[in-house]
Write a structure and sequence with these properties.
A hairpin with a 1-residue loop joins strand 3 and strand 4. 37% of the residues lie in helices and 17% in strands. By secondary structure, the protein is an alpha/beta fold. The strands form two sheets. A five-stranded parallel sheet has the order 6-5-7-8-9. A four-stranded antiparallel sheet has the order 1-2-3-4. The chain folds into two domains: 135 residues, no CATH class; 139 residues, 3-Layer(aba) Sandwich (Rossmann fold).
Length: 281
């Protein structure tokens, strides 16, 4: 939805829908904020002033605002209003914020995996309810990218990209746009699928690897890639919306902070791909 069309009423409705799913009757818990806390705000800019802003993305061109609403099992889930790929178009999404550093050796690891699955299911339920209510979600982004392809289409290139993204609307939107720019794009939605794909020839020219993945996360996948002599030199571009210690990602070839504009993605690919892979066929 264009910023000029986005109204405080859209945000209040989105919060009401979110809270009905996140705090069902009899399950306990209480949200920190409700839509009533935004009453009296007349412009979307005033609403944004009440939200947290991910400043790291400002340099890269897309704005991201959030409210930590939680759910009855987990206090850190967030309602997000963000630009993604297309400047000036805003979408509602949920950040499950379940990227706490709990590794397999930790005694709470199994329970944390169950919690992450609960959060992912809840995210899908709420975002589906938003779509039914006519609110802007990342599902709308794919249609925008299809329209952009007609305008920004380029000749076929020789570069093959493995795009790793577990948020399916985002994955399909990015793939749609990249294919329009002439790249050959495969999708993987889990870390395990990435490793399965990289076990086969030919290797892609680049892996765009999401940091937040179910099961094996991006950091664990990166470690596996670098530890295998066959894939140790694989080009990897890490994409993350989390505040990650970049020292732990020292072996990646580049980092993109989500959400990012498509122009930045394209220029990054042009820098990272070998000259032979950039050229049209």
């Amino acid at each position: 939805m264009k910023l000029s069309d986005l109204q405080p009423a859209h945000v209040r409705t989105a919060i009401d829908v979110y809270l009905r799913h996140a705090f069902p009757p009899g399950m306990g818990g209480k949200p920190r904020i409700t839509s009533a806390d935004l009453n009296g705000l007349e412009t979307i800019e005033q609403v944004f002033d009440e939200m947290d802003r991910l400043r790291a993305t400002d340099v890269e061109g897309c704005k991201r605002y959030s409210l930590q609403l939680g759910n009855h099992l987990y206090p850190f889930m967030k309602f997000v209003v963000e630009e993604y790929l297309v400047n000036g178009e805003y979408f509602f999404s949920i950040d499950t914020h379940d990227d706490l550093d709990i590794r397999p050796h930790h005694p709470d690891y199994a329970g944390f995996q169950d919690l992450k699955q609960h959060n992912r299911v809840l995210k899908l339920e709420v975002e589906s309810a938003w779509r039914t209510a006519g609110l802007p979600t990342l599902d709308d982004l794919r249609g925008l990218c299809e329209d952009l392809c007609a305008i920004e289409r380029e000749d076929q290139k020789s570069a093959a990209i493995l795009l790793v993204e577990d948020d399916l609307p985002v994955a399909f939107a990015i793939r749609t746009w990249l294919c329009g720019k002439g790249y050959c794009v495969e999708l993987a939605h889990t870390g395990e699928r990435v490793l399965e794909r990289l076990a086969r020839d030919p290797l892609p020219d680049l892996v765009i690897l999401d940091y937040e993945l179910p099961g094996l996360d991006g950091e664990a996948v990166l470690e596996r890639i670098r530890s295998d002599p066959r894939t140790a030199a694989q080009r990897v571009l890490m994409a993350t919306a989390s505040r990650v210690d970049l020292a732990r990602l020292a072996t990646v070839n580049g980092v993109l902070h989500k959400p990012y504009p498509r122009e930045l993605l394209f220029s990054t690919l042009q820098q990272m791909l070998p000259l032979a892979a950039r050229a049209p066929k």
